[in-house]
């Protein structure tokens, strides 16, 4: 009963993280192994809170002095993984954004050149007109239309 409140607080934190993750399950678009790893993390976290002596026993079996030290080492590894994962995701998004910006710039450049130099559709109409067919009337601008 001595550690009841801290255990309750830690379990509530784990459950709230799990609920947030589940709530954004469809939006997250995470890979299956990330979902499994996160679910396993929550289960192990709740177990470690309820049975801290078992964590100490595992730590002793692995050659670590205390269970809290083992938890700290695991958290350092997890933080390194999360940092690397975030870095790689940002790098991928930056590449996609650069490719998109290049595509838009090329498209806009071609559109501006067509407007400035005359569009290929206008050139096709001129060729047909030179061949002897009757030219189509050009659409009137809204400024030159008389009522």
Describe this structure in words.
The protein is mainly alpha-helical. It contains six helices and no strands. The chain has helices at residues 4-23, 25-28, 32-50, 52-62, 67-117, 120-130. α1 runs antiparallel to α3 (32-50), α3 (32-50) crosses α4 and α4 packs across α5. The protein is elongated. The model is unreliable at 124-129 (pLDDT under 50).
List keywords for this structure.
147 residues, mainly alpha, 6 helices, 79% helix, elongated
Q: What Rg do the Cα atoms give?
A: 32 Å
Assign an overall shape.
Answer: elongated
DSSP helix fraction: over 70%
State the helix count: 6
pLDDT < 50 runs, ≥5 residues: 124-129
Topology:
Blueprint: H1 4-23, H2 25-28, H3 32-50, H4 52-62, H5 67-117, H6 120-130
Helix pairs in contact: 1-3, 3-4, 4-5
Provide a short characterization of the protein structure.
This protein is an all-alpha fold. It contains six helices and no strands.
